[in-house]
Amino acid sequence: MVSDSVVDIDSLVYTYGNMTVLDAISMSVKKGEILGILGPNGCGKTTLLKNLNRNLSPHGGCIMIDSSDIESMSKKEIAKKVSVVPQTNEIRFAFTVRDIVGMGRIPFQDSLRGASSEDLKIIDKAMEQTGVLSMADRHINTMSGGERQRAIIARAIAQTPEIVLMDEPTLHLDINMQFEVLDLMQKLAKDNDLTVVMVSHDLPMITRYCDRIILLHDHKIFAMGAADEVLTKENMRTVFNVDAELERDPRTGKNTVRLFGSCKE
Questions:
Q1: What's the CA gap between 164 and 227, in Å, rounded?
Q2: What is the pLDDT of residue 112?
Q3: Distance of alpha carbon 240 from its chain centroid, rounded?
Q4: Which H, E and C letters describe the chain, residue by residue?
Q5: Which of 59, 108, 123, 151 is the most buried (most CB within 10 A)?
Q6: Which residues contact 222 (CB under 8 A, 6 or more apart)?
Q7: Which phi and psi (to 5°) does residue 49 adopt?
Q8: Dist. CA 178–CA 25, nearest whole Å
């Protein structure tokens, strides 16, 4: 039987000193889905993401990508399958947008050679898809937060990955840019046949854009499934200590979460 998952995690444990940050996490990521990993600050979301591209190595359990144990893969092999949009897009050096996007091709290049003609085509396509081709020669440290985020996404797309990991992708963006960036990522996932894993503590955004949600609480999986299975009033009260309700926006037909305030003890 052929599995429809691209990532399988079995009993993953990660600790910092004596503190367990991920406690026996078992889950799968389906090919082509946008999976949201949701939870309050400090619950282990970013640590989980860093294990998925082996920036961190687990202290127990295993992660399989396309049926291969990630611990047996080289960093270059992982980079050809998994790209990352990090939590911060601040870049202090005066790289151009083209320089930044071109970094996505490094895993495919010989150390003694520059970009090939094929690399250049992929770089241009990634910039075109993300709307930054006209900004190719601009220095990234002169751009707005939303423009920088588009360039970072273009770099991730230029890696031609199967999986894109996104860590709080809207954290430092204006509200309008939060929608623009996630609308873009949703379109890119469809057009490029990508699997996206997005971590956030933003209930409405995760609910709106993700096909499936995993809710972390106390460093364990508290619930997983479709939004209406995971984001019940009781679960949101327990995990986030908020009075909230899942509903469907009649204007867009998409799920959203209405927040009423903090729960009163």
A1: 21
A2: 67
A3: 21
A4: CCCCEEEEEEEEEEEECCEEEEEEEEEEEECCCEEEEECCCCCCHHHHHHHHCCCCCCCEEEEEECCEEHHHCCHHHHHCCEEEECCCCCCCCCCEHHHHHHHHHHHHCCCCCCCCHHHHHHHHHHHHHCCCHHHCCCEHHHCCHHHHHHHHHHHHHHCCCCEEEEECCCCCCCHHHHHHHHHHHHHHHHHCCCEEEEEECCHHHHHHHCCEEEEEECCEEEEEECHHHHCCHHHHHHHHCEEEEEEECCCCCCEEEEEEEECCC
A5: 151
A6: 39, 215, 216, 235, 238, 239
A7: -60, -40
A8: 29
d(CA 94, CA 92): 7
205-226: burial string, b at 16+ Cβ within 10 Å, e else: bbbbbbebbbbbbebebbbbee
Asked whether residue 62 carries a pLDDT value surpassing 80, the answer given is yes
User: Is the per-residue pLDDT at 3 higher than 80?
Assistant: no
Over residues 172-219, the pLDDT tens digits come to 889 999 999 999 999 999 999 999 999 988 899 999 999 999 999 999
172: CB partners within 8 A, 6+ apart: 88, 89, 145
* Cα–Cα dist 216/61, whole Å: 18
Q: Which CATH class name applies to 5-81+161-262?
A: alpha beta
The token duo for 20 is 């367990």
pLDDT range class, residue 265, cuts 50, 70, 90: low
Order of strands, edge to edge, in the sheet holding 19-30?
A: 19-30, 5-16, 60-65, 68-69
For residue 172, give both structure tokens.
């430092």
